[in-house]
Amino acid sequence: MQKLINNRLLISFQEKLPQIRSKELTCVLLFYNMYGMEKRLFEITRNSPVALKTYVLELKALEPGYEFSGEFVDISLDGFYLRRPLSVCGYAPGSLTILYKRVGEGTKALSAMVPGQRLELLTGLGRGFDASATRSAALLAGGGLGAAPLLPLCRSLKAAGKRVSVALGFNTAGEVVLEREFAEVCDALAIATVDGSKGVRGFVTDAIEALKPEFDFYYTCGPLVMMKAVCAALDGPAEVSLEERMGCGAGLCYGCSCHTLTGPRRICKDGPVFRKEEVIWQ
Predict the structure, then answer these.
(1) Superfamily for 1-19+242-282?
(2) E-only strand ranges, 4-71
(3) How many CB atoms lie within 10 A of CB 135?
């Protein structure tokens, strides 16, 4: 029922978007500025495949002084009303690295873009992981492209002197991403594939079993069914990064709300990261 409501909100938002007047657009921009969100232009420096239907997008900010904040960005594409929300897997002063999968017409159009072309991004979106929640050792569990936002978290945890174990799950060897990047940073890494073509045969929970990690806090990101299984298998406190179809990406339309112990929460604005204990799994 919740997904049906969300889909109806998104359809309504998409139908009304072309009719928005300039005054209303001004209000939206004021809302963005009020909450630290910014519209910025970036230039593509790399846009190439790295795995099955998976691309790495490297961007350079056209304005000086840009520093990434938030958890994800919303990309505007010519010919599409709604922006595409994508997780950031790396950043440096003046640049961003994004990992995305070609799954629909929007990402198909994005995958056809070449270095030198420009993209308009809405940045400063979302509430990210809290690295300070880990006392001494953390476990990171990612499924598919859910591995992407865990990479900067892994780097932050290691920079703070924490021990980090990483368990990643994919359908097949051809979909494995960021293996080298994690291996260069973390203390222990295990990969699982459903078909057994790489690493442990099975799911992320099987990779965790192979690792047998010691941790006082864990973080997970990926498909909902995967995160639900991870949280059911592991005790202790955790943070989960939820995913849902988004309309505005800024908390205006409530199209991406989820159920929590404190009532409906907006994944784009209140999340996408929530404490495991507050999520009501559907």
Answers:
(1) Dihydroorotate dehydrogenase, electron transfer subunit (2.10.240.10)
(2) 38-51, 54-61
(3) 10
CATH class of the structural domain 131-235: alpha beta
What are phi and psi for residue 265, nearest 5 degrees?
A: -130, 145
Domain at 35-125: CATH code? 2.40.30.10
For the chain, give me the number of helices (H) and strands (E)?
A: 7, 15
Do 38 and 32 meet the contact criterion of CB atoms below 8 Å apart? Answer: yes
Beta bridge partners of 192: 169, 200
Pair type for strands 273-275 and 238-241: antiparallel
Query: Residue 248 and residue 226: Cα distance in Å, rounded?
Result: 26
Q: Name the 3-class secondary structure at 233.
A: helix
- pTM comes to 0.85
The number of residues making up the chain comes to 282
* Band of pLDDT at residue 269, cut at 50, 70 and 90: confident
pLDDT digits (tens, 9 = 90+) for 208-248: 999 999 999 999 999 999 999 999 999 999 999 987 676 66
Average pLDDT over residues 54-82: 90
Average pLDDT of span 78-94: 90
Query: DSSP 3-state assignment of 43?
Result: strand
Beta strands in 52-148 (DSSP E): 54-61, 72-76, 84-92, 95-101, 118-125, 137-143
Q: Where are the domains of the chain?
A: 1-19+242-282, 35-125, 131-235
> Which residues face 201 on adjacent strands?
193
